[in-house]
Amino acid sequence: MRSRTDYYKILIGVAVVAVGIGVGFLPSYFEKKKEFAGEEPVIEWKTAIVKNSKGIETKLSGLEGKLFLVYFGFSHCPDLCPLALEEMGRAYRLLGPDSSRIVPVFVSIDPERDTPEVLEKYAEGFPDRALKAFTGGRDQIEALQRGFGVVSKKVPLPQGKVGGYGVDHTLVLYLVDRNGNILSAYPTGTSPEELSKGIRHWLRNI
């Protein structure tokens, strides 16, 4: 079992440019599926207060469900965030009846632009409208990012691009249990079949 320090180093190593010209990379050591069972739960899962798409303050640990598929991104992302949500959505459908036992979660790393209203519209296209989207105060979002080992940084867009700035960020889907334990982590680009297979494994073994 890896320590949290070990998998944080790996996850930080896959922070890539997710905006602007849409360039990204997946290091060769990061396989299509990689498990990072943490020795301790992510404390911020229970302590960070975020806002849902209705503007209601929420603790993620209060969500109903057995497992949570968590992604940190932003609504203005032109390519890799939509790809991650598409993978999540297709995996969700592949789970069939088991999909009722998981909760897809999107946490915005761009709370200045991602208001609850923006995120409510952003999440509408997810299957069964099952995606729970969250924003919040900058301090709370950054604390939650640190808990998961997610790094992000604002970057200026090329002149003429709409939006003013983009955000470089870690491109990872996290499978989390109710206590905030990270069971597995998958890089963006993991096939929906692999995602659904991993989720089923944990549904049957925890």
Automatic annotation (TrEMBL):
Q: Which GO terms describe its molecular function?
A: metal ion binding
Q: Which residues cross the membrane?
A: 7-30
Say yes or no: keyword NADP present. Answer: no
SUPFAM superfamilies to which the protein is assigned, alphabetical:
Thioredoxin-like
Q: Does the keyword Lyase apply?
A: no
Write down the CDD domains for this protein, in alphabetical order. SCO (cd02968)
The text of the family note is:
Belongs to the SCO1/2 family.
| Protein name (Swiss-Prot/TrEMBL) | SCO family protein
Q: Can you name the source organism?
A: Leptospira fluminis
